[in-house]
Design a protein that fits this description.
The chain is α+β, with helices and mostly antiparallel strands. About 35% of the residues lie in helices and about 15% in strands. α7 packs antiparallel against α8, α8 packs antiparallel against α9 and α10 packs across α11.
């Protein structure tokens, strides 16, 4: 037996009628609905159509035999029992939609839609080239027919609602949203109830119950209630994406400008990252010259990676500490610092319920992953009580073996790196930096700007031999400074290779590692060299079946043992495990693949050819 679940159609339609006010189109209609249809009227319609009508539409007719939806909708009026009829597909849409189907990949929903046009029941009597169609072939477990609204003028697929009731409830919400914030006062019991839900959602959000807050705000936003969209956007997993319209009403408010304007700037830069021309940041609100100038300055700072989120109080101090850790690679430590400080955060005003400014920070935006943002939202803050959420796991695996077992594709294509003991990361350019390239980058650089593959520099004459590395730098958990480059194009070692280990070890030990997998035309190569106090202690290079070695190599690093079967993944994994054990080395995976790190260009890792030595350079040109 099917039922409409006891839905109060007279009460629902009566409330709509009582709240109705004319729209801007100038319509002045006293009543939206017609008098109820009798059971005999409904039965006669069913007999004429040869089918029993779905439960919610029957319940509607028993409360109102026809309804003026709204002149602002594409469907203006829904007919009564005596006016509805089969659609009959007068425009030949069946063949059009069947043409969209791929026999192998088409979903059941797509097949239903293709067959809907010839079997649908048409409900509208007046519209803007649009149709409200009930589909007897698309029936839910509750016996309801899906309702499709097809707008013939927009060329889009029709909007689907699971039932006639769902459609009417959506139109009722739209009726409210279209009048909210208009020039004429619009207040009634529904608006007051939804505004109360917005305030309740604000309190639930600060208590850490973002799920309840999201549910309340989703409905309030559908009703167009002020503040609901901006609050809801703060509870999304990626708060910096698509923010400009949600925050348009707040960004000019001095209480929120410092928190929200950078978020809009970050979203603007992200949206335009792969466009030739980004254009000016659209704020979505009236602005004065000062706000416009601030917006342009922020876009420039975000684009160059220089923006810092600087809230006040204890939370602000924790953010600064976390940024310092993250810019040298300690992303997990940075998050632990932020996590501990979240309860101390306080909003700048009632329309902000989370520190969304983190999403614009040039370093910390990458630290706060969607999972961590959910943890932050689940943490009680601003003096509210409640249980603390389960901490999300750290992102970085320990040690080095992830370079073989869990590395992204770019790293699997090869890498070179070095670790220096007793030296701060910002000292590396002084030890091995190219003096002509300006030293350490002024700001940490994101993964899309960092050099991810060695590019041949403009070389002429003797400069062809120069093989400079562009290293992303940081500090390991055990205190070693590191530098790392993905996918260098050169082949490690060889007769022109010069290890940076002696120069880098002027203040302590240095370990240099270079690995490249086998390619169709070259063997796999692994090179290790270790220096201390300015001299090389030992080194080896495994290339195919051959091994070159020098110095007193510790037994734990003996290439004859580690690479007994050649320089493949097994040997590389054993070498990485030995470096972990021998020197306590590690690398922060997330910082290298997704974070923001400083970088610098090194002196060449190769020497110039000596007299009598040959040096060949091959180049390829693509002919178009």
């Amino acid at each position: 037996m099917t039922t409409d679940g006891g839905f109060d159609w007279p009460g629902f339609l009566g409330r709509w009628q009582a709240e109705w006010v004319p729209g801007e189109d100038g319509t002045h209609r006293d009543r939206l609905g017609e008098p109820p249809a009798s059971e005999a009227d409904i039965a006669a319609a069913e007999e004429r159509l040869g089918t029993r009508l779905p439960p919610s539409y029957r319940g509607f007719l028993a409360a109102a035999n026809g309804w003026w939806v709204d002149a602002t909708a594409s469907v203006y009026r829904l007919g009564g029992a005596e006016e509805i009829d089969w659609f009959g597909d007068p425009y030949g849409l069946t063949e059009t939609y069947r043409g969209f189907l791929d026999d192998e990949r088409a979903s059941d929903r797509e097949r239903l839609l293709a067959g809907m046009w010839r079997r649908a029941l048409r409900l509208e009597t007046e519209s803007d080239m649009s149709h409200a169609l009930l589909d007897p072939g698309d029936v839910g477990e509750d016996g309801e027919w899906a309702l499709y609204v097809y707008q013939g003028w927009n060329g889009e697929f029709p909007d689907r609602y699971p039932s006639f009731r769902a459609y009417m409830e959506a139109r009722y919400r739209a009726f409210h949203a279209e009048r909210a914030g208009g020039p004429e006062p619009f207040e009634n019991a529904t608006t007051r109830a939804q505004d109360a839900n917005v305030e309740r959602a604000r309190q639930e959000a600060l208590r850490g119950d973002w799920e309840t807050a999201t549910e309340l705000l989703t409905e309030a936003r559908a009703f167009g209630r002020p503040g609901a969209a901006a609050l809801l956007r703060q509870l999304t997993a990626r708060p910096a994406v698509d923010q400009r319209f949600a925050f348009a009403a707040l960004v000019a408010d001095p209480r929120y400008t410092g928190e929200l304007l950078p978020v809009l700037a970050a979203a603007h830069v992200e949206d335009g990252r792969h466009r030739a021309h980004q254009g000016q940041l659209a704020l979505g609100c009236d602005t004065d010259e000062a706000l416009r100038t601030a917006a342009d300055d922020l876009v420039a700072r975000v684009r160059e990676g220089a923006h810092r989120y600087e809230p006040g109080g204890a939370f602000g101090r924790a953010v600064a500490e976390a940024r310092e850790a993250a810019r040298w690679g300690d992303v997990d430590g940075a998050w632990r610092t932020i996590r501990a400080a979240v309860p101390s955060w306080s909003p700048p005003g009632p329309d902000v319920v989370a520190p969304v400014g983190l999403a614009a920070d040039s370093v910390l935006a990458r630290v706060v992953t969607p999972e961590r943002w959910r943890e932050l939202l689940s943490t009680p803050r601003a003096g509210r009580g409640g249980p603390a959420p389960q901490p999300v796991p750290d992102l970085d695996p320990p040690g080095l073996r992830w370079l073989v077992d869990d590395a992204p594709r770019a790293i699997r294509s090869g890498y070179r790196c070095l670790w220096v003991e007793g030296t701060a990361p910002d000292r590396l350019p002084a030890l091995i930096g190219d003096p002509d390239t300006g030293g350490l980058s002024a700001h940490p650089v994101g993964p899309w700007e960092r050099v991810t593959a060695h590019r041949y520099q403009e070389r002429q004459g003797a400069d062809f031999w120069k093989d400079r590395a562009v290293l992303s730098v940081g500090r390991t958990a055990s205190g070693w400074a590191f530098g790392f480059e993905v996918a260098p194009s050169e082949v490690p070692a060889g007769r022109f290779y010069v290890s940076p280990a002696p120069a880098a070890s002027a203040e302590g030990r240095c370990v240099t590692l270079w690995a490249r997998p086998a390619l169709p035309d070259t063997d796999a190569v692994v090179h290790l060299s270790v220096g201390e106090r300015g001299r090389e202690l030992f080194a080896f290079t495994v290339r195919g079946d051959g091994t070159e070695r020098s110095g007193a190599i510790p037994a734990s690093l003996d290439p004859a043992v580690l690479f007994a079967s050649g320089p493949g993944e097994d040997g590389e994994r054993r070498l990485l495990a030995a470096l972990e054990s021998e020197y306590g080395l590690s690398l922060p995976r997330f910082a290298l693949t997704d974070g923001a790190l400083h970088r610098f260009t090194t002196r060449p890792w190769s020497r110039a050819p000596r007299e009598g030595e040959g040096y060949a350079v091959l180049t390829w040109s693509r002919i178009r």
